[in-house]
């Protein structure tokens, strides 16, 4: 019987890198969480404990911090590309690298009616994400970039319906033409080029998502998600695919009748679980192959 080593990768997860730009009295901040994973021929490390081809996870971590200084973090996509290319291009045993980044947004504190130069308040907003994969060396090198966001919590108090659904003997859900719709959205979009103004495209796509959520008279969360993906693809021809995942944060009209009170969709129980989970991929029909773009390292084995 032979035993063989299957898929493997290794790296440093969740480096919390905070980069301050302090060249002028008005400082700037980038607050990120970076994970790296290297793929290649690391068989000897597994079978014989031979580390000669292993660039330690500690070195990967140190590189993440050093690159924050040396290369800067103009955007998480640019910084992730620099890191991934460095590991693949500069180390012979490494033939693939995956960099996953989350960015936490801060806004300037307002003190005496003015934006403060070096104090921020963490934005309770969404987290921006980037997943970068580089494979192969030299001419044939391939690169995949996925931009995205998570924890974008949105709610609309009307403009959402759900009716005409399949019913059986277990159906108790009442149809509605006017309900609260709320979700904490995860969205990821796959670029077909790296020639992108990363800092401009992110707010533009987020705006499409928010506009669509607000303005579509929604017959279901499924329809809203599809419209978000479709509009992004129709607006940007260099995006091939959009993946969306949306928990339906149910808002149930609370029964106030025991207190002799009317509840005309004014008081709700925002239930945290269970939640409907609606997920969809929207793709251009001529989209180039996704290859390993969606393969997530950190979610891989939990
Ligand atoms: O937007 C919705 N989609 C569903 O599939 C669904 N199912 C359900 O019970 N409520 C909802 N809402």
Question: In words, what does this structure look like?
Answer:
The protein is an alpha+beta fold. The protein folds into two domains: 1-140, Urate Oxidase (Roll); 150-288, Roll (Urate Oxidase), CATH 3.10.270. Helix content is 22%, strand content 35%. It is built from five helices and twelve strands. The protein has helices spanning 43-47, 57-70, 76-90, 198-215, 221-235; strands spanning 15-21, 28-40, 94-104, 106-111, 114-122, 127-135, 142-156, 181-191, 239-248, 251-253, 268-270, 276-283. The two termini are 30 Å apart. Uric acid (URC) is lined by residues 162, 173, 220-222, 248, 276, 278. The site of uric acid has 8 residues, from helix 5 and strand 12.
CATH top level class name of the largest domain: Alpha Beta
Helix content range: 10-25%
Find the count of extended strands (DSSP E, 2+ residues). Answer: 12
Per CATH, which architecture of the largest domain?
Roll
Query: What is the number of helices?
Result: 5
Keywords:
302 residues, Urate Oxidase, binds uric acid, Uricase_CS, urate oxidase activity, 12 strands, alpha+beta, Uricase, 8-stranded antiparallel sheet, two-stranded antiparallel ribbon, 2 domains
Condensed summary:
The chain is of the alpha+beta class. Helix content is 22%, strand content 35%.
């Amino acid at each position: 019987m032979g035993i063989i080593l299957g898929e493997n990768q290794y790296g440093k997860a969740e480096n919390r890198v905070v980069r301050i730009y302090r060249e002028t009295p008005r400082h700037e901040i980038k607050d990120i969480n970076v994970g790296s994973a290297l793929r290649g021929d690391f068989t000897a490390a597994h079978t014989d404990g031979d580390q000669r081809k292993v660039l330690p996870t500690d070195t990967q971590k140190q590189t993440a911090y050093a690159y924050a200084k040396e290369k800067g973090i103009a955007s998480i996509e640019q910084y992730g590309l620099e890191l991934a290319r460095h590991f693949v291009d500069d180390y012979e045993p490494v033939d693939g690298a995956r960099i996953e980044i989350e960015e936490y947004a801060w806004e300037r504190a307002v003190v005496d009616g003015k934006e403060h130069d070096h104090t921020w308040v963490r934005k309770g907003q969404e987290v921006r994400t980037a997943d970068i994969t580089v494979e192969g060396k030299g001419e044939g090198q391939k690169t995949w970039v996925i931009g995205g966001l998570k924890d974008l919590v949105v709610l609309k108090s009307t403009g959402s319906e759900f009716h005409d659904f399949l019913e059986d003997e277990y159906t108790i859900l009442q149809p509605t033409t006017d309900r609260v719709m709320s979700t904490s959205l995860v969205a990821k979009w796959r670029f077909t080029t790296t020639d992108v103004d990363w800092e401009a495209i992110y707010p533009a796509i987020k705006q499409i998502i928010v506009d669509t959520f607000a303005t579509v008279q929604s017959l279901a969360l499924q329809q809203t998600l599809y419209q978000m993906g479709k509009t992004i693809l129709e607006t940007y021809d260099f995006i091939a695919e959009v993946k969306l995942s949306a928990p339906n944060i149910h808002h149930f009209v609370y029964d106030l009748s025991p207190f002799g009170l009317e509840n005309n969709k004014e008081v709700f129980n925002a239930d945290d679980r269970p939640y409907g989970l609606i997920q969809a991929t929207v793709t251009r029909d001529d989209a180039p192959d996704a290859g390993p773009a969606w393969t997530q390292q950190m979610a891989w084995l939990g």
